[in-house]
Design goal:
The chain is of the alpha+beta class. About 35% of the residues lie in helices and about 10% in strands. It has one domain (about 10-80). It has a three-stranded mixed sheet with strand order 1-3-2.
């Protein structure tokens, strides 16, 4: 069950995601974010062939899409892809 209050999500929803995570050392060099510290998230997503970056960071969200990577809020991702 998703707790729709700002910044809250039931941890049991995250367990399957956490079990499949792996650490990626990016090799790409991207410089498109208005906050250069956020470019590392795009680099990592690109090098791991991700299709989503889920973030609340406005500097990433304003990009909306980079190559085939959609940048969405946690709320939008949960509403679209997780069962109620």
């Amino acid at each position: 069950m998703i707790d729709r209050r700002q910044g809250r999500i039931n941890r049991t929803i995250l367990i399957p995601l956490i079990k499949t995570m792996e650490i990626i050392e990016p090799s790409s060099h991207i410089a498109i974010c208005r906050d250069p510290d956020d470019d590392k998230f795009l680099e990592c997503a690109k090098d791991s062939y991700d299709i989503y970056i889920v973030s609340g960071d406005k500097d990433l969200l304003v990009i909306e899409k980079y190559e085939n990577i959609q940048i969405v809020t946690a709320k939008d991702f949960c509403e679209k892809y997780l069962p109620d």
